Amino acid sequence: MEPPQIYVERTLAIIKPDAIDCADEIEEIIYRSGFTVLQKRRAHLTPEQTSDFYAEHYGKMFFPSLVAYMSSGPIIAMVLAKENAVNYWRELIGPTNCFRARETHPDSIRALYGTDDQRNAVHGSDQYGAEREIRFMFPESIVEPIPSGQAAKDYLAKLVNPTLLRGLTNLCKQKPGDPITWLADWLIQNNPNKPCVNDKVEIVEP
Ligand code: GDP
Ligand code: MG
Questions:
Q1: Global confidence as pTM
Q2: Atom 1 of ligand 1 has which residue's CA nearest to it?
Q3: Beta carbons of 141 and 16 less than 8 angstroms apart
Q4: Which of 15, 71, 93, 137 would bridge with 76, disulfide CB 3.0–4.6 Å?
């Protein structure tokens, strides 16, 4: 039987200005929840940048105060990767309104670190916005779908498995005390793509 396919997805998380002092604790929750942080940057957005980021809310009553709040201090933006990352992160942060979060999702990040219906500690993309928001915060990043299924198998079979298999065989022979560090070192030494330095360089005298 075919093993179930795993789709790794990316989402954008932001630690908002009101929660910046709790950033370490929130990042700890992110790591403990099994996310991989692919990219991270600290930024202080201008009101113009904030308006662009939240363009979907333009014209709503809360828009001006949202822009003032989000540009009032530094934020930390992170690209998180995990299976079903968008929904999982939104589940973890809880409802938009912190008062409601405390009632219905008392363990959520917004219940724990948010203040009110606006200052809610963290942002999470929704399914339609993730790609645009990642590009907004990390314009240099290439948002390609992470290969899955057969494409992932082909990629690993061609570029990773042959080297990894040699490394793992050597690892089993050596049985080092710290196998992960040993394998990491072995891979650096045996990286087939590293530049080949020829030490028999002929020096041509002028
Ligand atoms: P989110 O996706 O859960 O962050 O919620 P939205 O996309 O609907 O709103 C974006 C942000 O605007 C929220 O995270 C809040 O900071 C703020 N916001 C949303 N609704 C309200 C509201 O009714 N009043 C106020 N003051 N701020 C709001
Ligand atoms: Mg939203």
A1: 0.75
A2: 96
A3: no
A4: 15
Tokens standing for residue 196: 């080949």
Write out pLDDT tens, residues 90-139.
Answer: 999 999 999 999 999 999 999 999 999 999 999 999 999 999 999 999 98
Q: Which two tokens stand for residue 162?
A: 């042959």
Q: Do 124 and 172 belong to one domain?
A: no
| Residues 181 and 99 both lie in one domain | no
The ligand minimizing its distance to the Cα of 114 is 1
In the structure, which protein residues have their CB atom closer than 6 angstroms to any atom of ligand 1? Answer: 57, 62, 65-66, 96, 117-118, 120, 123
Q: How far is residue 201's CA from residue 71's CA, in Å, rounded to a whole number?
A: 57
**What residues make up the domain containing 94?**
7-147
Other beta carbons within 10 angstroms of residue 26's beta carbon come to: 20
Total domain count for the chain? 2
Cβ atoms of residues 99 and 117 within 8 Å: yes
Q: Are residues 41 and 134 in the same domain?
A: yes
